[in-house]
Amino acid sequence: MSDETPSADKPARSGFFAKVRRGLFMTHTEILEKVGTAVKKSLGIDESVLESLEEALLSADVGAETAAALTEAVRERASGSQRKDLEFVRTLLSEEMERLLSSAPRPERRAEVPLFVTFLVGVNGSGKTTTTAKLAAREKAAGRGVLLAAADTFRAGAIEQLQTWADRLDLPIVRHREGADPSAVLFDALSAAKARGAGTLLVDTAGRLHTKKNLMDELAKMRRIAAREVPGAPHETLLVLDATTGTNGLVQARRFVEAAGATGVVLTKLDGSARGGIVLAIYRELKLPVVFVGVGETIDDLVPFDPADYAKALLEDDAAH
Known about the structure:
The chain is an alpha/beta fold. 53% of the residues lie in helices and 12% in strands. An 8-stranded mixed β-sheet has the order 3-2-4-1-5-6-7-8, sandwiched between helices. Helix 2 (16-23) crosses helix 13, helix 7 runs parallel beside helix 8 and helix 9 packs parallel to helix 10 (213-229).
C-alpha cells in the first residue's frame, strides 16, 4: 500500500505540503509564539528559552521523551553559536525533527503478491471506515482491483457506511448482517477476492478499546485466518489514530502494536488539532512509520506522509502561510 504509484500519488504528493501546512498551523503557531516570547524576554537562548521550548513541544503532544530529546539537541547545538534569535531556534529544531524522522523506520514497499491484504484497526471514532474508503479510492486510481470487507459487525451503521462508500466508488463489498462473526466475514471476503482475482483486500475491522482482551483476541483470530488462507497475510496492518487524542493515542498504539501487529499508522483529523507533534512521538517512541495523514473530509484528503515536508510545515515562517 505504501509503494509509489504515479497515477494515484502524483496529485496527492503535489498537494501534500499545502494540505499538511494548513493542518499543522495551530501546532506551528503555539510552538513559535511560546518560544518567540521567551527569546524576546531573555534576549538570547538561555535555560528559560529552552524550558519554554520543551513546554511548547509538550503542549503539541510531542511526548515527554521526545520533547526532552529535541530540547537537549537544540541546547547542545546552540551552545557553541553566536546566533541567539528565534529564527536560529526554528532552524535547529526543524533540522533535529528531520533527523529524528529520517532515522525512523520507513514504510515497506508493497509486496508483489497476487492478493495484498490490509487490516485497518483502532478504537471507535478514529475514522477507520472512512479511511478504508479513502485507501480503496487510491488503490482503484492506481489501477488495482479492490474488494472491501465490512468486518466491523459491532458498530451500528458501520456496515451501511462502508456499503455507501462501496456504491459511491463502484467497488465490490463482502458484508454480513450486523452482529455477525467478523471472522466469517473475513473468510468470505478472502474467498471472494481470490475468486475475482482482486489485487487488494481492505478489511474494516471493529473499533475496539485497547483494554478489551476479548476484542483483541478476536483480532488475533482474524489474523490467523488471513494467514491460513493467503500466505503472508495480513501484509499490512494500519493503525488508524485520531490526531486530536494527542499522546493518549500512544497508549492505544502500544497495545495495538503488541496485540494486532500494527505495521504503520494512518493519522486522521490532522487538520483539526493543535497536537500535530504526535507524529514525532509515534516515530521516536513507537518506532512505527506514519504512512498516511488525513487532512480533511473529502475522498482525496488522505495523503502519503512526507517527513521532510512535515517538519517544514510545522516550523516554517508565518509569512509563508
